[in-house]
Specification:
The complex is a heterodimer of chains A (622) and B (175).
Chain A lengths: L20 E6 L3 E8 L2 E4 L9 E2 L1 E4 L5 E3 L1 H5 L8 E3 L21 E3 L7 E4 L2 E3 L1 H20 L5 E6 L5 H13 L4 E6 H13 L3 E8 L4 E9 L2 E10 L4 H15 L7 H18 L4 E7 L5 E7 H7 L1 H6 L1 H11 L8 E5 L6 H11 L12 H13 L9 E3 L6 E5 L3 E6 L7 E7 L9 E7 L9 E9 L11 E7 L5 E7 L5 E8 L5 H12 L3 H30 L5 H17 L5 H14 L1 H17 L1 H7 L1
Parallel strand pairs in A: 1-11, 11-12, 13-18, 15-19
Antiparallel strand pairs in A: 1-2, 2-3, 2-4, 5-6, 5-7, 8-9, 9-10, 13-14, 14-15, 16-17, 20-21, 20-23, 22-25, 23-24, 24-27, 25-26, 26-27
Chain B lengths: L7 H4 L10 H15 L9 H22 L1 H11 L14 H19 L3 H27 L3 H29 L1
Helix pairs in contact in B: 2-3, 3-4, 4-6, 4-7, 5-6, 5-7, 6-7
The chains are: A alpha+beta (622), B mainly alpha (175).
Chain lengths: 622, 175
């Protein structure tokens, strides 16, 4: 079914250039890129006409990095250097990977921190591997659209924690993509469906992807998508169904433990069988192993349903939790949207239909719907559409807390709080003259620190020395619209801001990202300078453009003096942009930002008044 | 006036009182977010983006506090400078303590016998008591009897906790 036509904002007072923005579905099994062209959200194809890019990256003998179908073909022959389903390792430590024996990669146990994989091209972080997939899609989009991208919306499973989200954003940075927003996959799917069907009411998005399961409950009304609750399992997906078939083949054909190539071969076979059984009552499995042994067995759809029944049921537990969190029962649900290739499996569709007592919606391609929705949101965020027609209010999927005495977690921000959200908490020192302290932030629903995921340790430094218990340090935990946490701290009596040093538990430090950026662009000093300059100019241009638009819209809020000052700073910035001196550009950007501070505040306050006053202010603006 | 300095009711242009038109609250909240949400400022200067995040955060906080009966009651008292001190002031009248004990026992029994229905029944029983406590608060607050208004909030708070407990137990039984 085609998406609804969306008119271009031809009515806009200041017609601006159409910005090139894309939506990227960075999937466990496949990735896609889509964009809005002539009002239609469309998936962009590669030169061979493929929409899906297999999320497989191969580090080849000749030093090439091969991504997609070509890499997938080499998977059985070169399993150690051909990485698939890397999304499962994003923001994860080695102890999080359930069964490393069935995974052919050489994991490097870096002690603490994100797992790494040894390849012939060196040690690679999942972030770098994901960046290769993103870079490939970026090139595809730039070729298809004929220009540089303004930005991208990248989707993540709703149930991704902070570390997994941060890892995704870091991957985009390494790939040279400007991230407009990280968007939850179920929300993206709802956007694609919502605009199509102009639906109002409460919808459940059931999203079973290759490696993750997500369920979200959304209320749609007049272009506002409000997420009421989300839940899921970040280690459950279509791959697990392949694995069940794989294990069944091992048992049924009485095979001894296999080498990596045969493991890969049979896992691929298992996936084909799973897909075949979505359309057919029976599958024939025929493979010749490297030992020469012939595997030749039959699997019926009925037997497959039996093998995977526990997996199917496993998806219903988070579904019930989400319903309960939203305070809704099955009768309140207007529709159930199916997302993710794995929802093609008949046992899944049946289980969902039985549970919700209604047939799920499957009219959009479950593989593409996330990317299509992300593209629509990217188009809105890039400023290509009227302001008032689509807004997503998403939630934080897992509670945030801090470690307290005795290894317990004190909850600070509850799960399903609408983003952005912030909480302040006061701390005090326990030693005379103490100038630093450490705050351990965790994410999860359990009470013990050991049962939650460690996100980061924040070290506060530069606390003014005082008697024990006298300092009152207010720490603010802010989670932004991307679902990412930042922490700021201030000593209340002196007003001194404390430095916050982040030590991510599973993420990358700024230095590591910089190094990856360097290695991906060549280490030459010249390059580094050129890049810094290019970035500074892009930032400056973006700022000037934003302020020009603000002046055109709300210039009447300014006095003549204020306006002259801002215009002078813009001129200065425009001049230094040609100077090839990135630090001068940064300085001019700071000055311009400073000059517009009160203008920004006035504009925002006017927005608040306009929102609630309705008509009167609209007239004033004309 | 700086919206961040306004009280939650004023922010949504609603009268500062316990009775709230929840449909209107929903509408006002959405209208406000439509204007100030960070998604409306992705291309703006970093100052505007920061301000937008602060405002949207404040609007979310305000909406959360006004939507829920207990939170709204607590907030009304706070506006009058009265802290309900649920953490430290755990003194409750004897009859309410009795109720608490009965509920705890009922939960234990239901969990022992894996009886989800019993837990559901208990939930509706507790919900009824919450409704009557809500009107007690409203009365006391109108009569400027802040002491008993604060007590109602403490009781409601307890009920919210036990309700969450029951939900958790149902979840565990279903898993």
């Amino acid at each position: 079914m085609a998406l609804l036509q969306i008119a271009e904002p031809g009515m806009s007072a200041a017609p601006h250039q159409h910005k090139l923005a894309v939506g990227i579905d960075l999937g466990t099994t496949n990735s896609l890129v889509a964009t809005v062209q002539s009002g239609m959200s469309t998936v962009l194809l590669d030169e061979q006409g493929h929409a899906l890019l297999p999320s497989v990256v191969r580090y080849a003998e000749n030093g090439d990095v091969v991504v997609g179908h070509a890499a997938q073909i080499a998977q059985s022959a070169d399993p150690k250097n051909t990485i698939s389903s890397v999304k499962r390792f994003m923001g994860r430590g080695i102890q999080d990977i359930p069964d490393t024996t069935h995974i052919p990669y050489k994991f490097r146990d870096s002690g603490a921190g994100m797992v790494q994989i040894e390849t012939r091209a060196g040690i690679k972080s999942p972030v770098e591997i994901s960046a290769e997939i993103l870079r490939n899609l970026k090139l595809r989009a730039e070729k298809a659209l004929g220009g540089e991208l303004t930005g991208a919306v990248i989707t993540v499973p709703a149930y991704f924690d902070d570390a997994q989200r941060q890892a995704t954003k870091d991957a985009a940075k390494i790939a040279g993509l400007h991230v407009l927003r990280l968007l939850n996959e179920p929300t993206a799917a709802a956007v694609a469906y919502g605009l199509d069907n102009a639906s109002e009411g409460v919808y459940v998005i059931y999203d079973l992807g290759g490696g993750t399961f997500d369920v979200s409950i959304l209320r749609l009304s007049k272009g506002i998508f409000e997420v009421l609750a989300t839940n899921g399992d970040s280690a459950l997906g279509g791959d697990d169904f392949d694995h069940r078939i794989f294990c069944w083949i091992l048992a049924e054909a009485k095979l001894p433990p296999l080498n990596q190539e045969d493991t890969r071969l049979l896992l691929t076979k298992a996936r084909e069988v799973k897909e075949w059984l979505s359309e057919n009552p029976e599958a024939q499995i025929t493979s010749v192993l490297s030992t020469g042994k012939l595997v030749n067995i039959k699997l019926s759809a009925h037997k497959f349903a039996e093998l995977t029944q526990t997996l199917v049921l496993k998806t219903l537990t988070p579904t019930r939790k989400a319903l309960r969190d939203a305070g809704l029962s099955i009768g309140d649900i207007n529709g159930v949207v199916m997302v993710g290739g794995a929802t093609r499996m008949p046992p899944i569709r049946q289980a969902v239909a039985d549970f919700f007592k209604q047939e799920p919606l499957t009219n959009l391609d479950p593989d593409k719907v996330v990317a299509l929705g992300a593209a629509i949101q990217a188009n809105v965020l890039a400023g290509n559409r009227n302001e008032d027609d689509l807004l997503l209010l998403d939630v934080i999927p897992l509670s945030l807390g801090i470690e307290t005495m005795g290894g317990l977690v004190e909850r600070i921000i509850p799960r399903n709080a609408t983003l952005p959200v912030a909480r302040a908490q006061d701390f005090t020192t326990f030693k005379d003259g103490q100038t630093a302290m450490s705050i351990h932030v965790l994410q999860g629903e359990r009470e013990l620190v050991s049962d939650c995921r460690s996100l980061a340790k924040f070290e506060l430094r530069g606390i003014p020395p005082m008697a024990a218990g006298a300092a009152r340090i207010r720490v603010t935990f802010q989670v932004d619209a991307d679902g990412l946490l930042s922490v700021t701290a201030r000593e209340q009596s002196s007003g001194v801001a404390a430095d916050v040093v982040v030590k991510p538990s599973y993420g990358l430090t700024e230095d590591e990202i910089t190094n990856m950026l360097k290695s991906s662009f060549g280490a030459a000093e010249q390059d580094k300078k050129a890049r810094a300059l290019r970035e500074a100019v892009v930032d400056a241009e973006r700022l000037v453009e934003a302020i020009d638009a603000a002046l055109a819209q709300d210039g009447n809020l300014l006095s003549e003096v204020e306006r002259t000052e801002i215009e002078a700073q813009i001129r200065l910035l425009n001049e230094v942009c040609n100077s090839e001196d990135s630090s001068a550009i940064h300085k001019a950007v700071d000055l311009l930002n400073h000059a517009t501070e009160s203008f920004a505040a006035k504009r925002m306050d006017a927005s608040v008044r306009k929102a609630l006053a309705g008509q009167e202010l609209d007239k004033l603006k004309l | 006036m700086d919206p961040l300095q306004q009280n939650y009711f004023a922010l949504f242009q609603l009268p500062t009182q316990f009775e709230v038109d929840l449909t209107l609250l929903d509408q006002q909240y959405r209208k406000l977010q439509s204007e100030i949400h960070p998604d409306r400022f992705t291309n703006a200067s970093c100052i505007e983006r920061m301000r937008s995040m602060q405002l949207a955060t404040y609007a979310n906080e305000a909406y959360r506090a006004l939507k829920d009966n207990t939170a709204r009651a607590r907030y009304l008292l706070q506006l009058q400078g009265i802290e309900t001190l649920e953490e430290s002031n755990t003194a409750m009248p004897a009859d309410f303590l009795m109720l608490q004990m009965e509920w705890r026992e009922a939960i234990d029994d239901a969990v022992q016998s894996k009886n989800i229905h019993a837990l559901d029944d208990l939930l509706s029983e507790i919900k009824q008591i919450a409704t009557s406590l809500t009107s007690q608060f409203s009365q006391a607050f109108q009569n400027k009897d802040v002491t008993s208004a604060a007590e109602s909030v403490r009781k409601l708070s307890f009920i919210d906790k036990i309700t969450a407990d029951i939900h958790r137990n149902i979840e565990n039984l279903e898993a």
